[in-house]
Amino acid sequence: MEQIVRVIGAPTDYGANRRGVDMGPSAIRYAGLADQLRAAGVEPVEAGDIRAPYAEECDPETRSLRTGTARFFDETKAVCTQLAETVESALAAGELPVVLGGDHSVAIGSVSGSAAASPIGAIWFDAHADLNTPSTSPSGNIHGMPLAALLGIGEFGELEWATAPNLREENVVLVGLRSADEAERALLEERDLTVLTMSDIDRRGITAVVDDALEAATDGVDEIHVSLDLDWLDPTAAPGVGTPVRGGVTYREAHAAMEQVAARSAIRSLDLVEVNPTLDRSNETAELATELAASALGKRIL
Ligand SMILES: NC(=[NH2+])NCCC[C@H](N)C(=O)O
Ligand SMILES: [Mn+2]
Ligand SMILES: [Mn+2]
C-alpha cells in the first residue's frame, strides 16, 4: 500500500524578522507539492493550515524587537501545541506528516508531535544552529531557538510543551552550519549534538557527511525527523529566505543529501520551513522545497 503523506500548513511569520514567511505554505502548495509527492510514489492528503495569528493581532509588547527575550512566546506555544497534536495523530494513523512553514519556530510543534509516542533522531539541514534561548538570543526571534526548546536547554527546561523528551541530543545532527552566535558556539562545545559544518562538506563531500549524519541520528533509534530550513542552500539556489547566508550547499548537493535520506528509509516526518515568497524569485524557492521533499521521500532520477 502507498504511504500516505499528510500535508500540514503552519503559516507563522512572527518567529522571524522579515515578514512574509507565513505565505510559505501556499507558495509550496502552488509550486506543485502534491504532484511532486505523487512522483515520489507517496499519496498526499491535504490537512489545510493550523490557525496562526498575524503579528498585528498580537500584544504590542511581544511585537517589539529586542534581545534577551522570546517574542511572540504565547502565540508560539498555542500554534506549536496544535501542530504537535496534528502531527501526532497523523503518525498514529500510519501517515507521514510533512509540515510547511512558516518560520522555523514551527519545528517545536512538529518535532515534539513526532517524538510524542516513541524515540526519534533529528537532522537539522540549516545554515543556522537554532540553539538560542530567550536569554541568549540576539534578536528575540523564536525561529533561532527551536532546537534549544526541543532539547530543554536553558529556560526551555521547565516548559513541557516545548521539549521533546524522546529526542536525545546524541541523536541530533546539524548539517551545513555556517552561522552560529557566540552562545550557540559555547553550547556546541559543551553538548553532545553532532555538528557537521560547511567546512566538513568542503573537505569530505556531501555524501560522506550525510552518511555520518544518518549514522549519528539513528544510533539506537529507528526513525528520524528531517527539518529542512531552505536557508541551508546557498542563496543563489534559494533566494526566498529571510536570513540568507552565503556559502551554502548547491542545488545538486541538496538533492543528493535528500536522496540519501530516502535510501535509508528512516524518515518519520519532515519540515519545509523559512520559504518567504516576498523575497523569492518567481516562487523558485518554494519549487525547490517541493523537489527536495520528493527526493527525501523517494523520488529518484531513474
Ligand atoms: N531558522 C532560522 N532561519 N534561524 C535564524 C536564526 C538567526 C540568529 N541565530 C538568531 O537567533 O536570531
Ligand atoms: Mn536557518
Ligand atoms: Mn532554522
TrEMBL record:
Q: Which GO terms describe its molecular function?
A: arginase activity; metal ion binding
The record's free-text note on cofactor binding = Binds 2 manganese ions per subunit.
Gene name in the database record: rocF
Organism (species): Halohasta litorea
**Entries under NCBIfam families matching the protein:** rocF_arginase (TIGR01229)
> What PROSITE patterns does the database record attribute to this sequence?
ARGINASE_1, ARGINASE_2
- Kindly list the positions annotated as binding Mn(2+) 1: 104, 128, 130, 229, 231
Q: Give the EC number.
A: 3.5.3.1
> What cofactors are annotated for this protein?
Mn(2+)
- Catalyzed reaction equations: L-arginine + H2O = urea + L-ornithine
Q: In which pathway does it act?
A: Nitrogen metabolism; urea cycle; L-ornithine and urea from L-arginine: step 1/1
Name the chain's protein. Arginase
GO BP annotations, alphabetical order: arginine metabolic process
Q: Coiled-coil segments, which residues? A: none
- What's in the keyword line of the UniProt record? Arginine metabolism, Hydrolase, Manganese, Metal-binding
**Pfam families in alphabetical order:** Arginase
Binding residues for Mn(2+) 2, per the UniProt record? 126
Q: Which family does it belong to?
A: Belongs to the arginase family.
InterPro entries documented for this protein: Arginase (IPR014033), Ureohydrolase (IPR006035), Ureohydrolase_dom_sf (IPR023696), Ureohydrolase_Mn_BS (IPR020855)
**Enzymatic class:** hydrolase
